[in-house]
Amino acid sequence: MNPELFLQLDRVIHEKGRLAIMAALAASPELSFTELRDTLGMTDGNLTSHIRTLQEEGFVSVAKSFQNNRPLTSCSLTKTGRKAFGEYIALLEQIVRQNKP
User: Fold this and answer.
1) Which residues form the domain of 90?
2) Strand, helix or coil for residue 40
3) For residue 26, is it within any domain?
4) I need a labelling partner for 5 at 20 to 30 A (CA). Which of 60, 88, 94, 96 fits?
């Protein structure tokens, strides 16, 4: 087993909540805050915190608008975020392949 591969995992993405957000956004072009919250079973505060971290890293884009006179917050992966997530998944696959008997 090569421990170097584990050290290469992106710590921003690797955290359980952020990994779930990245995976959900990778599967959809855009999701509302409410859709993310309900799909992932997170609290508003927890989701907000993780989205902020991903946004600061440049992985997630947040857009605020109105729908039926109500505020709507939508999230999507940026080009950088999609690339980082793809590299993260590729590294996980490499780790799994390396450790198969």
Assistant:
1) 3-95
2) helix
3) yes
4) 60
